[in-house]
Amino acid sequence: MKNKVKNKQQVKKQVKLEDRLYAVGLCLALAAPAVLLSYLYLRRSIPFLAFPCTLRTFTGYYCPGCGGTRAVSALLHLQLWKSFCYHPAVPYTVFVYLWFMISHTIEKLSRRKLRIGMKWNPVWLWLAVAILFINVLIKDLALYFFQLDLLQMIR
What we know:
Layout: H1 2-45, H2 54-59, H3 68-76, H4 80-86, H5 89-109, H6 122-146, H7 150-153
């Protein structure tokens, strides 16, 4: 009996967390167009906003975020492979975000009759961290051992 009560409490906590994540996701979806338009406008009128990576400038090697802006730009132009090559964490994050939001929207519209909402699991976050480090490792190893600048090769 105690296990049943404990399981119900865990399910309630999980649903509450997912509802909060969904609310944050909706806020992001509403704010994204304004942020994007502001960035595009300010980048053209104030060129210093497009500054280079400090780590890359001083060491010659990539940081875990290098290529992210180009990946977002490629993704906005629906160049999925290019986006993946620039920075695989960007399409991964967009895919996870879209699946989470779409599945929870369907679940909410069906009043939880269709329980297809993506469940929160820290594995999704750890996978993103792993992608970040594998990405920078590959780029920096190619640069160090073979003098290949992989981001410059993508066109």
